[in-house]
Amino acid sequence: MATNSDITVIRTVVDLRAHISVWRSAGETIALVPTMGALHDGHMALVHRAQEIASKVCVTLFINPTQFGENEDLDTYPQNEDQDKALLSAAGIELLYAPHPSEMYDVAEATRISVEELGDCLEGAHRPGFFTGVATVVAKLLLQTLPDFALFGEKDFQQLQVIKRMVKDLSIPVVIEGVPCIREKNGLALSSRNTYLNTDERKIAPALYKTMNEMAENIRKNMSIKDSSTLAKASLLDAGFTSVDYLVACNSSDLSFITSLADVDTNKGRILGAAWLGKTRLIDNIAI
Questions:
Q1: Could you give phi then psi for residue 14, rounded to 5 degrees?
Q2: How far apart are CA 139 and CA 218, in angstroms?
Q3: Distance of alpha carbon 267 from alpha carbon 85, whole angstroms
Q4: Using CB atoms within 10 A as the burial measure, which of 20, 21, 94, 119 is most buried?
Q5: Predicted model pTM
Q6: Residues belonging to the active site
Q7: Domains located in the chain, CATH noted
Q8: DSSP labels, 172-206
């Protein structure tokens, strides 16, 4: 266990549970904010919301190896623990749980959590095994901490739905709360991977949000889902994106595809997209 300014940094499950136990004995309510570090204003929005709904907040920092596939960026994923600790300390966070991979995964363990259907489409289809890694590590963090609340960003909308389903199916006693996406002034959703973008790509990147809004507006004007998606994909490629993995309209709750506006209340519809800009893969979503 170590301290950095006013923040306590814990590396083991034993120390984490001992610390949480003291909070529990004092009658505190606890919110968990899981992160992979490289914190930005999007993460801090989760932190601030956690502080609003609970008397104590535990932030986790763990770059989860099981959610990275072959040829993905596990070895180069941005990280700066000292900077993250300084940000959290300045925000009044008392506890950071930053375990080593060997603390989270025993070499002999054989259990993984798979959320079928919700975890198999969209991101799951393009990144096989991704949501199994996410569901497993989030379940571990929830069971290690046993918080009253856990907060996740709506920027990773499919991930949020997968986690909600997992918690419901496994009867884990925690309230999962989604926090709205934080964006730059130009509309680009904040993401740790935005650091991969070069100067020219940063100028192009906001086109994803702009195009998704145009697609939503076309749907509201009764353009067919298929035509609005085709037009949006062409717009992204014209803007300078390299390729588009998907750009679809879905029901928010189960991510089932919408074939026409009549299929869904517009308040419950969502556009989700993933596209490549050079070597960087950007994801985003908006309500229809």
A1: -60, -50
A2: 39
A3: 38
A4: 119
A5: 0.95
A6: 43
A7: 2-179 (3.40.50.620), 192-283 (3.30.1300.10)
A8: ---EEEEEPPPB-TTSPBP-GGGGG--HHHHHHTT
